[in-house]
Fold:
Amino acid sequence: MKAHALFGLLVVAATAAAAAVAYNAGDGEPSSARTQTASSASASPRSAPAGAGSLAPSGAASMTDTAATTYRFVDKLIDSSDDNNHYAYAPSIVVENGVFHMFYCSFGNGGWDDVRYSTSPDGRRWSAPVVVLTTTDSVNERATCDPSVVKYQAPGDSQPYYYLFYSGNKLHTQTVMFVARATNVGGPYSKWTTDHTWVPNAPNPKIIIGPAVPKPDASGWYGAGQQSVVVRNGQLVSWYTDDTTCANAPCNRLFTSTTTNPTAWPAGTQIDVQGQRSVDVKYDPQLDKYVMFYIGNEHDQTSYLVRRYSQNGVNWDQPETLCDTACFPDWTHNPGVSGTVAGQLIDGRALVAYGAPYDLHPSYDNGDCAVSAHSPYCWGRWDLYGSVINPKGEVWNAIPWGWQWNAMSTNRDLALGDYDGDGKTDRAIVDRATSRWYVISSSGQTVVPWGWQWNQMDTAAPLALGDYDATARSIGPWPTRPTVPGTRSPAVASIRSPGAGTGTATVRNTTWRWATTMATARPIGRSSIASSPVGM
Structure:
C-alpha cells in the first residue's frame, strides 16, 4: 500500500500535509535537474470545477514525427464517488488483444483496501469496477493495494499465469508485499500461502518481500511496497520502495530485484533514483531501455509528470518533465502506465493513470475529511484520471471529430483500410512523391513501418486497396514482391493504363502484373469483366 493508504484515512490532515511539505522540500527531485520536453500549452488546466472532462483537448498531436514526445490530457477514467468507493489510485494497466485491463487500489470491505478491476476498449470508456482481490488476513496482510500485473510462465509451470503483485501491511512490521495468480486476466486470483500453495481467499497469504527493518505501527515509517514488475529475457524484474534503510528517520529509496520464481525474490539492489515514493516502470523494446514514470511533488499543488530511462534498471538518465507544474493537474499521485502483459510499452506510447481529487476540484485542501470544511474535496477522496504520451489519436487510437493530420498535403493520397484486421478502418496516407506509407492502426499494432517505402510504385498509378486474399485485412504477406522483412506490406493494386485499353494489376495472391483488358476511363473496381482473379 502507499503510505497515504496505510494511514490515509486514519491520520490527521496536518500530519499528512507536513509530511508532503517535508518530502518535497527535502529529497524530492531538484527543479534544476528537470528537462522540459512538452509544452504546457498542449495540456489540461491545472485544476477544474466539476465536469472537468469538457476541458480535455479536442485535437490530437501531429503524427509527422513519431519520435517526438507528445502529451495529452484525457479525462476522468474512474469516478470513485459513483459507487461509494471513496478513492481510486495506484493503477496497473495491461493491454491484451486490444483491450485495456486496469487494476487499482480502492476502498476496502473488511480490510483497509481492495483491488478493483475495470476494462476499456479505448482507454477512455471504462466498465463498472469489480473487486478482484480483498484482504483475508487481518494481522499479517490487513490490506490489498498497489497492484502490478504481468503474464509469466515460470520454470516448471505447464502454462503461463497472470501474476498480481500487491502490497499489504503486517502488524508491527509495516508495508509488505504478496502475490496472487490466475489463468484469466480478470481472475479469480489465488494467493500464495505459507503452505506454499495457491489458494483463493487464503487466510494465510505469504509475504514475498518485506522491509529491511521492521517498524512498529503508528511509527511514521512506511515499510516496503509499491512493486512494479516487468518480464524481460525470461525473468521477472521489479522495482519497489523501502523507507526503513535509514537509521533515524524514514527515507524514500528504490530497489530492484530479479527472479524466475514469482514467490521468491533476492535482496534488492538500491538504484540511483532518490526521493520518489511511487514509480511505475516499463520496458521499451524500441529503445531497448527501461522507462520509469513518476509524479514529482505528488500530493501537492505543484505536481508534474516525469520520465527517466535506464539500460540496466539501476543507473538512470536525468529526469525529463513530460508535463510541468503549469499543465499537470494539482494534487496528483501514484501513477500507473499501460503496457503489454509483459510490461512492455506499445510503440513508445503510454496511457498514464493517476489518483487526483474528485472532479479536479480547485477547493481540494489535502486535509482530513472528518474535519475539512471542503469535504468531499479532501484527503482520501480521489478519482482516477488519465493522460497519454505519444497518442495515435486523441486518446489512444480514437479519431476525434475534427482531428487534423498536419502531414496531409496535395501530393499525399488517403489510403484508408483495415490494415490490422480488427474490423476498424485505419488512418493511412501515401506520399506520391516518395512512395512512402504512413499508417495509424486502430489496434495500436505497427503493421506497416512508419514511412515504409514501396520503390516499385508509379506516381501516376491509382490506388486500389482491398482484401485480395480473404484475410479480412487490407494488408498481408506478399507471395512475391514487394516485401518488407519482418512485417507486412500494403495490399495495393497499382493499375497502369498505357492508353490502348490494356492494364496491369499489381495485387496479392494473383500473378504479378496480371493483365486484363479494361477501359482506361473506367474507375478502379468497376471493370466490365464479369469475373477476374481480383473480382474487378
User: Anything to note?
Assistant: DSSP finds two helices and 30 strands in the chain. Residues 13-25 form the longest helix (13 residues).
